Amino acid sequence: MPHGKLPTITTPTGGSVEIVTSVSQPGFNPLDLIYASVAACMALSARIAATKLELREKLTDVRVEVKGDKAHEGPSRIERFDITFHFDGDLTADEKHRLAEMAEEICTVSNTLRGDPKFDLKVS
Protein backbone atom coordinates (compact mmCIF):
# COMPACT_ATOMS: atom_id res chain seq x y z
CA MET A 1 0.00 0.00 0.00
CA PRO A 2 1.54 3.33 -1.02
CA HIS A 3 2.44 5.73 1.78
CA GLY A 4 -0.47 8.06 2.56
CA LYS A 5 -3.12 5.85 0.96
CA LEU A 6 -5.86 4.72 3.32
CA PRO A 7 -6.90 1.06 3.42
CA THR A 8 -10.26 0.47 1.73
CA ILE A 9 -12.75 -2.25 2.56
CA THR A 10 -15.39 -3.47 0.13
CA THR A 11 -18.56 -5.30 1.07
CA PRO A 12 -20.18 -8.20 -0.81
CA THR A 13 -23.02 -5.81 -1.75
CA GLY A 14 -20.60 -3.41 -3.46
CA GLY A 15 -20.18 -0.80 -0.76
CA SER A 16 -16.74 0.53 0.03
CA VAL A 17 -15.24 2.76 2.67
CA GLU A 18 -11.75 4.07 3.37
CA ILE A 19 -10.54 3.26 6.86
CA VAL A 20 -8.77 6.00 8.78
CA THR A 21 -5.79 4.93 10.82
CA SER A 22 -5.96 7.53 13.56
CA VAL A 23 -8.79 8.63 15.84
CA SER A 24 -7.90 12.25 15.01
CA GLN A 25 -8.59 11.75 11.29
CA PRO A 26 -12.10 12.41 9.96
CA GLY A 27 -13.80 9.26 8.71
CA PHE A 28 -14.37 5.75 9.98
CA ASN A 29 -11.93 3.72 12.02
CA PRO A 30 -12.68 0.06 12.84
CA LEU A 31 -14.39 0.89 16.17
CA ASP A 32 -16.58 3.50 14.44
CA LEU A 33 -17.69 0.79 12.03
CA ILE A 34 -18.65 -1.57 14.87
CA TYR A 35 -20.64 1.19 16.57
CA ALA A 36 -22.27 2.16 13.26
CA SER A 37 -23.16 -1.48 12.56
CA VAL A 38 -24.80 -1.90 15.95
CA ALA A 39 -26.67 1.41 15.57
CA ALA A 40 -27.89 0.62 12.05
CA CYS A 41 -29.00 -2.87 13.01
CA MET A 42 -30.82 -1.64 16.11
CA ALA A 43 -32.61 1.09 14.14
CA LEU A 44 -33.74 -1.34 11.44
CA SER A 45 -34.71 -3.91 14.08
CA ALA A 46 -36.76 -1.27 15.93
CA ARG A 47 -38.77 -0.69 12.75
CA ILE A 48 -39.37 -4.44 12.44
CA ALA A 49 -40.37 -4.54 16.12
CA ALA A 50 -42.79 -1.64 15.58
CA THR A 51 -44.51 -3.61 12.84
CA LYS A 52 -44.69 -6.78 14.98
CA LEU A 53 -46.06 -4.80 17.94
CA GLU A 54 -48.52 -2.96 15.67
CA LEU A 55 -46.88 0.38 16.50
CA ARG A 56 -45.58 1.21 13.01
CA GLU A 57 -48.20 3.92 12.44
CA LYS A 58 -47.22 5.62 15.72
CA LEU A 59 -43.46 5.52 15.07
CA THR A 60 -42.33 8.39 12.84
CA ASP A 61 -38.56 8.06 13.25
CA VAL A 62 -35.92 6.15 15.18
CA ARG A 63 -32.30 7.11 15.75
CA VAL A 64 -29.75 5.08 17.68
CA GLU A 65 -26.52 6.27 19.29
CA VAL A 66 -23.86 3.72 20.18
CA LYS A 67 -20.74 4.29 22.25
CA GLY A 68 -18.47 1.83 23.93
CA ASP A 69 -15.81 1.27 26.54
CA LYS A 70 -12.64 -0.59 25.66
CA ALA A 71 -11.35 -3.20 28.08
CA HIS A 72 -8.37 -2.11 30.15
CA GLU A 73 -6.89 -5.59 30.43
CA GLY A 74 -6.63 -8.67 28.28
CA PRO A 75 -6.95 -8.67 24.53
CA SER A 76 -7.97 -5.42 22.86
CA ARG A 77 -11.77 -5.40 22.67
CA ILE A 78 -14.91 -3.44 23.47
CA GLU A 79 -16.06 -4.39 26.95
CA ARG A 80 -19.36 -2.51 27.02
CA PHE A 81 -21.75 -0.99 24.49
CA ASP A 82 -23.94 1.93 25.55
CA ILE A 83 -26.96 2.11 23.24
CA THR A 84 -29.47 4.98 23.30
CA PHE A 85 -32.68 4.85 21.27
CA HIS A 86 -34.43 8.07 20.23
CA PHE A 87 -38.01 7.40 19.14
CA ASP A 88 -40.20 10.05 17.50
CA GLY A 89 -43.93 9.61 17.33
CA ASP A 90 -46.95 9.20 19.54
CA LEU A 91 -45.46 6.45 21.72
CA THR A 92 -45.77 5.89 25.46
CA ALA A 93 -42.67 5.28 27.58
CA ASP A 94 -43.71 1.62 27.89
CA GLU A 95 -44.03 1.27 24.10
CA LYS A 96 -40.58 2.80 23.60
CA HIS A 97 -39.06 0.34 26.09
CA ARG A 98 -40.80 -2.59 24.40
CA LEU A 99 -39.52 -1.45 21.00
CA ALA A 100 -35.94 -1.13 22.28
CA GLU A 101 -36.03 -4.52 24.01
CA MET A 102 -37.47 -6.28 20.96
CA ALA A 103 -34.98 -4.53 18.67
CA GLU A 104 -32.16 -5.87 20.80
CA GLU A 105 -33.59 -9.40 20.51
CA ILE A 106 -33.97 -9.11 16.71
CA CYS A 107 -30.66 -7.41 15.83
CA THR A 108 -28.29 -9.79 14.03
CA VAL A 109 -25.24 -7.66 14.84
CA SER A 110 -25.80 -7.54 18.61
CA ASN A 111 -26.74 -11.24 18.64
CA THR A 112 -23.48 -12.02 16.82
CA LEU A 113 -21.39 -9.91 19.20
CA ARG A 114 -22.98 -11.66 22.19
CA GLY A 115 -22.33 -15.08 20.72
CA ASP A 116 -19.09 -16.84 20.06
CA PRO A 117 -18.67 -16.61 16.29
CA LYS A 118 -15.93 -18.67 14.69
CA PHE A 119 -13.37 -16.95 12.47
CA ASP A 120 -12.13 -18.81 9.38
CA LEU A 121 -8.99 -16.93 8.33
CA LYS A 122 -7.60 -17.26 4.82
CA VAL A 123 -4.60 -15.65 3.17
CA SER A 124 -4.43 -14.95 -0.55
Automatic annotation (TrEMBL):
Transmembrane segments: none annotated. This is Osmotically inducible protein OsmC. It comes from Brucella anthropi.
